[in-house]
Amino acid sequence: MSDSSGHGSAEVVLDVRNMEMSVGGTTILIDVSFQLERGRTISVVGPSGSGKSTLLRCLNRLERISSGSVLLGGVHTDALPAPALRSRIGLVSQKFALFGHLDALANVTLGLRRTRHLSKPAADEQAREWLNRVGLAGLEKRRPHELSGGQQQRVAIARAAALEPDVLLLDEVTSALDPELVEEVENVVLGLARSGTSLVVVTHEIPFAAKVADIMLMMEAGQVVETGPPQDVLASSRPRSQRFFARHLRGWGDSITSVGSAG
Ligand SMILES: Nc1ncnc2c1ncn2[C@@H]1O[C@H](COP(=O)(O)OP(=O)(O)OP(=O)(O)O)[C@@H](O)[C@H]1O
Ligand SMILES: [Mg+2]
């Protein structure tokens, strides 16, 4: 793992240029452009229906873009076969689909064996290491129904991260969880961010979006309307952005200022 302290020249791992996406005459993404530097984290916030999930799904081509381009490590992603692309740009969503008949360890080793072609002992070792990193040491033999929602979501994150994708996309990985389980999953994501994984994190939790990310991006009606360091975006003078943050930060009071500058 590289460190994320920002020394040395920044390599752009993901370069999104003027991306547009339409379905049946409806434009869902409009002129979306941003760059993710290797080892950095971008958080994506915005109202429901603003296009956050569609954006992620376009990045690993679960949805086709209508125009613009996505470059991964300088290479146009449309030059990559879909399986290769998806092993390099991983996606974990709210509806993490673990294999119910496999234990936690096997859920993680499966991808390592199929995609990375590791031997069983090597896959087992890496899977154990990743389960340990997400705080699940000792639970390797549990099947999904024997784990809490937060534990299952951590298995899903370990499974995706173990493949060491160039970029890991996380789509509201805490939104299906009971409130008391949110923090344990957020801490896992923070750990990944701090250890140099290149992440795009979609979340409704604005304080978390500010804490985890180097760059925060806000979407509205398919467009990027704010982008920059979290504390700058949170301090935006744009009235609609201010109303959005006010709605989502009720109860947080002034603490957001410190959250925004902590990362
Ligand atoms: N395949 C599709 N066909 C038609 N409309 C779609 C399709 N996918 C998404 N949309 C529409 O595109 C818009 C953006 O949806 P998207 O799921 O990306 O929003 P979101 O920001 O992730 O919302 P949420 O916060 O509720 O998850 C919505 O209006 C949605 O109904
Ligand atoms: Mg969504």
Uncertain runs: 1-6
How do the helices and strands follow one another from N- to C-terminus?
Answer: EEEHEEHEHHHEHEHEEHHH
- CATH architecture classification: 3-Layer(aba) Sandwich
Major β-sheet profile: 6 strands, mixed
Q: State the secondary-structure class.
A: alpha/beta
Ligand roster: adenosine-5'-triphosphate, magnesium ion
Spell out the blueprint of helices and strands.
Layout: E1 12-23, E2 26-37, E3 41-45, H1 52-59, E4 67-72, E5 75-76, H2 82-88, E6 89-93, H3 104-114, H4 120-133, H5 149-162, E7 167-171, H6 179-194, E8 199-202, H7 206-212, E9 215-220, E10 223-228, H8 230-234, H9 239-248, H10 255-262
Parallel strand pairs: 3-8, 3-9, 6-7, 7-8
Antiparallel strand pairs: 1-2, 1-4, 4-5, 9-10
Magnesium ion (MG) binds next to helix 1.
